[in-house]
Design brief:
Layout lengths: L1 E4 L4 H11 L5 E4 L15 H16 L3 E10 L23 H11 L7 E11 L8 E11 L15 E3 L4 E2 L5 H7 L1 H16 L5
Parallel strand pairs: 1-2, 1-3
Antiparallel strand pairs: 3-4, 4-5, 5-6, 6-7
Length: 202
């Protein structure tokens, strides 16, 4: 089964393709099908993921999978949340992972409450009009470090320390990260939902 992934992020594609391989699902990036990105006007992960999935399915005619994810920092009341990808631009930097990390560490200078969580909401649709979307949410809670540590992964991986491991996501091997990340947890839930609803024989 081919699923259009409503994202142009190569890191997300690689992670999710590995996680969905057991079902024999092939993920195709929307960019590879000439599909433009959908507007994301909403303030919650689930609303944006649903909007992205419906858009990709509508244009491609394929079932779709969308992920909306972000960093929720306790000291900032849960922000940047859905604005995570553009976080750096609020502080005069260009959009990008490295600048997001730089801006976050600058904004957290002197803050003692370092609690934060990476959150991922996955939505899967059989068609753009599917009345029963599959929804899965994963959360990886940790502490924001004082400086980036590790060189694996992407996004905020170098600055989110996971207390059970004593390491950041950027220090973990891919298989350990995938099993414990927000996206990994959401994908495991989504796999279970797909097996139950879409592939009952799988």
């Amino acid at each position: 089964m081919r699923l259009v992934l409503a994202s142009n992020n190569k890191g997300k594609l690689a992670e999710l393709q590995a996680l969905f391989a057991p079902l024999g699902v092939e993920l195709v990036r929307q960019a590879d099908l000439g599909i433009p990105e959908a507007p994301e006007p909403h303030r919650t992960f689930i609303e944006n993921a649903l909007a992205k999935a419906r858009h990709a399915s509508q244009v491609s005619g394929l079932p779709a999978l969308a992920d909306d994810a972000g960093l929720c920092v306790e000291a900032f009341g849960g922000l940047p949340g859905v604005d995570t990808a553009f976080y750096a631009t609020q502080f005069g930097y260009e959009k990008g992972d490295d600048n997001n990390v730089r801006a976050l560490l600058e904004q957290m200078r002197g803050i003692t409450d370092r609690r934060a969580a990476l959150v991922s909401t996955l939505v899967a649709l059989r068609s753009a009009d599917d009345p029963e979307p599959l929804v899965a949410t994963g959360r990886a809670a940790g502490l924001i470090t004082q400086e980036p540590i590790g060189d694996q992964g992407f996004g905020f991986d170098p600055v989110l320390l996971l207390p059970p491991f004593g390491k950041t996501f950027a220090q973990l091997p891919a298989e350990v990260k995938n099993a414990n990340s927000h996206r990994g947890k959401a994908a495991q839930q989504m796999l279970a939902l797909m097996r139950e609803r879409w592939f009952p024989q799988a």
